[in-house]
C-alpha cells in the first residue's frame, strides 16, 4: 500500500503544534521539513535556537500530539552529523539526511538505533552513484521531485522519475519516498515509476480540507 505523508515546514513551535494537530486522526505520520538557512536558503523551527526543542531533546516535554501522531524529519541542514542524535531523542520515527550535505555516514548510521529508520535523500541533479554505496545500509531512499529544495509549491522535475526507476532496478524491495511537487497530477506517475511513499506539502495544506486531500491522493494511487 502506498503511504501518503503530509509535509510541514514549521515556522515556530506554535505553528508546528497547530499544523500537526490538523493531521491527528487523518494519517499516522507526518514529515517535518527542518532547514537551517545554510544548506538551503529557508530556515524553520527549531533554528537557530528554541527552548521548546531543547526541552523535548532532554525529554522534559514531548513533541506536540506525540501520543497521536508519529513524525519523520527531513534534515535539510549543513551539519546533519551534529543533529541526528537530537532528533532521535526527540522521538523521530524516521530520519532523512541529504547525501549532498553528509560528511560522515558512519557517524549518522551509529546515531540511529534499530527502532528508528534511516533514509538518504538525493537531489535530481545528483547522480545515483552518490547513494549506491549506502543502499544496503539504509531503510529507504527519498528522491527529491524538485530542482530547488527547501520550498513548497515548486515545479515538478521530470528527472525524479529516472532516479526512482534506477533505484528500483538496483533494489526491487527498497522503500522509495518522493518529496517535492507531489500533487494530484504527479502522484500516479511517481507510483508507476516505483515510489512507495508520497510526501506532499502544499497540495494538502493549501487544499482547504486536509483529510479530503489525503484521501484523494490515496484514491489516485491505490
From TrEMBL:
Q: What Gene3D superfamilies is this protein classified in?
A: Aldolase class I
* Highest taxon of the lineage: Bacteria
Q: Please give the Gene Ontology molecular function terms for this protein.
A: metal ion binding; racemase and epimerase activity, acting on carbohydrates and derivatives
GO BP annotations of the record are: carbohydrate metabolic process
List the InterPro entries hit by this protein, alphabetically.
Aldolase_TIM, Ribul_P_3_epim-like, RibuloseP-bd_barrel
**Which keywords does this Swiss-Prot/TrEMBL entry list?**
Isomerase, Metal-binding
A Pfam family in this protein? Ribul_P_3_epim
Q: What is this protein called?
A: Ribulose-phosphate 3-epimerase
Amino acid at each position: 500500500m502506498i503511504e501518503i505523508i503530509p509535509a510541514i515546514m514549521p515556522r515556530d513551535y506554535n505553528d508546528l503544534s497547530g499544523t500537526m494537530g490538523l493531521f491527528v486522526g487523518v494519517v499516522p505520520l507526518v514529515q517535518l521539513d527542518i532547514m537551517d538557512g545554510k544548506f538551503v536558503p529557508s530556515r524553520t523551527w527549531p533554528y537557530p535556537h528554541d527552548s521548546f526543542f531543547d526541552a523535548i531533546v532532554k525529554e522534559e516535554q514531548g513533541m506536540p500530539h506525540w501520543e497521536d501522531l508519529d513524525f519523520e524529519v527531513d534534515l535539510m541542514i549543513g551539519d546533519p552529523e551534529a543533529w541526528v542524535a537530537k532528533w532521535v531523542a526527540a522521538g523521530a520515527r524516521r530520519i532523512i539526511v541529504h547525501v549532498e550535505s553528509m560528511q560522515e555516514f558512519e557517524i549518522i548510521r551509529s546515531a540511529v538505533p534499530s527502532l528508528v529508520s534511516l533514509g538518504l535523500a538525493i537531489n535530481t541533479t545528483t547522480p545515483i552513484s552518490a547513494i549506491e554505496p549506502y543502499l544496503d545500509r539504509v531503510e529507504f531512499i527519498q528522491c527529491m521531485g524538485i530542482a530547488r529544495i527547501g520550498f513548497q509549491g515548486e515545479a515538478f522535475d521530470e528527472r525524479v522519475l529516472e532516479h526512482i526507476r534506477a533505484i528500483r532496478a538496483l533494489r526491487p524491495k527498497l522503500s522509495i519516498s518522493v518529496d517535492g511537487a507531489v500533487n494530484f497530477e504527479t502522484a500516479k506517475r511517481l507510483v508507476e515509476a516505483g515510489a512507495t511513499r508520497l510526501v506532499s506539502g502544499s497540495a494538502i495544506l493549501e487544499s482547504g480540507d486536509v483529510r479530503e486531500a489525503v484521501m484523494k491522493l490515496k484514491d489516485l494511487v491505490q
